[in-house]
Design brief:
about 375 residues, 11 strands, single chain, alpha+beta, three-stranded antiparallel sheet, 9 helices, globular
Length: about 375
């Protein structure tokens, strides 16, 4: 997330709808990824304060701004839609007359906006199912009601279903413990299910399918039986050396979705650390860096060595950053920020995700910020 401030100088954050300093209305322009104070123009339209364009473009406030979603996104005045792209992706809402659902929806929509913003920045396809029933995306936020079948979080043909109870801390913690998960978050759920959606869109029936099968396994293995076996017998003992999580070892599709989610975790957090100029260059953390031999066997179309090196700089920066973040969390008596370990095979899989996301742009991957990309000393030699 980019750091932003109001015209009065007050810092602004991604979910703000009003400046706490001067009281100005605040909104987010998704296409230029700008958050700032907005000024009323004509006919119910608004401009972003300080917009460098002349004349400044006109926008409408998302119609869900005053609703339970508390959406602070803008809609270009040239578009016929009354609601923003993020809100248009939500197809089904839980019954809002139920006591906990307004607060749940606020949590879910806030997390979804943050995830959608990152997907836009990466240039990934984002079309609501209402506009493209075959390939579009939709979110159904459903509640398990008494006397009805329980809601299961999952993905099917571009429709992502999320049990709204996942917005409740107690529900998530209970499930996290029962499933022996290191952590469980709404953003993690959204990114994981989006991994399934983008596998269908970007990997299936493309030249990426064979590289996927060589790294993740053959997805044609019976999915239902694989999950049944995973829950009945637990993961294979060797999963930590080849998968990012125990659940990822259950089936190639789940391995991809988990790896995809972690790729987005890594990229989003590193970029936020970069724009906020977090400096860990003097950190005493010493790690053994991943080098190009980790991905040299990756069966891909030719990728320039500098693209591999740039990606590994991100990964090595991530390891240093999370070591600091985890120690900081422990100092507050909180769980680790990132309770996972990246192995060589996981990094190789993550590089394939990176290549799929970048597409033809993979050779132009930027290096991580200087504050994070200081030379990594080999932990074996000090």
């Amino acid at each position: 997330m980019q750091p932003s401030q109001c015209t009065c100088g007050q810092p602004l954050f991604f979910d703000n709808t009003r400046c706490l300093g001067c009281g100005a209305e605040v909104a987010y322009e998704p296409f230029r990824r700008r958050l700032g104070a907005v000024v009323a123009a004509v006919d119910g339209l608004w401009t972003v304060s300080g917009d460098p364009l002349d004349p400044p473009p006109l926008f409408r406030l998302c119609a869900h701004r005053a609703a339970a979603a508390a959406c602070n996104w803008l809609v270009p005045a040239s578009e016929p839609a009354a609601i923003c792209l993020s809100c248009r992706l939500t197809r089904t809402l839980p019954p809002l007359d139920r006591p906990r659902n307004p607060a749940r929806l606020l949590h879910l929509e806030s997390a979804k906006r943050r995830v959608v913003s990152m997907l836009q920045r990466l240039g990934l396809p984002l079309v609501p199912k209402s506009g493209d029933p075959e390939h579009g995306l939709a979110f159904d936020f459903l509640e398990s009601l008494p006397g009805e079948p329980g809601v299961i979080t999952g993905h099917l043909a571009g429709a992502i279903t999320l049990n709204v109870a996942e917005a409740d801390d107690d529900y998530r913690e209970k499930n996290r413990e029962s499933l022996r998960e290191p952590y469980r978050t709404v953003i993690g759920h959204l990114r994981h299910e989006l991994g399934h959606y983008y596998w269908d869109l970007l990997v299936r029936d493309t030249h990426w399918l064979e590289p996927f099968r060589q790294l993740f396994g053959d997805e044609r293995a019976d999915y239902g039986e694989a999950l049944k076996k995973h829950y009945a017998e637990g993961p294979a003992p060797d999963w930590p050396g080849r998968c990012i999580s125990s659940y990822a070892s259950s089936h190639p599709w789940e391995d991809w979705a988990e790896t995809w989610a972690h790729y987005l975790h890594v990229r989003s957090t590193l970029e936020t650390a970069s724009v906020y100029r977090l400096d860990i260059s003097q950190s005493p953390v010493r790690v053994t860096p991943f080098t190009a031999d980790v991905v040299h066997t990756l069966p891909l179309p030719p990728v320039p060595p500098e693209a591999v090196e740039a990606f590994l700089e991100w990964i090595n920066a991530w390891i240093r950053l999370t070591a600091v973040l985890n120690e900081t969390a422990r100092s507050m008596g909180q769980p680790d920020t990132y309770p996972f370990v990246l192995s060589g095979p996981v990094v190789e899989k993550m590089f394939l995700v990176h290549c799929v996301v970048q597409g033809d742009r993979v050779a132009k991957t930027p290096s991580p910020p200087d504050t994070l990309a200081v030379p990594v000393r080999d932990g074996r030699g000090g």
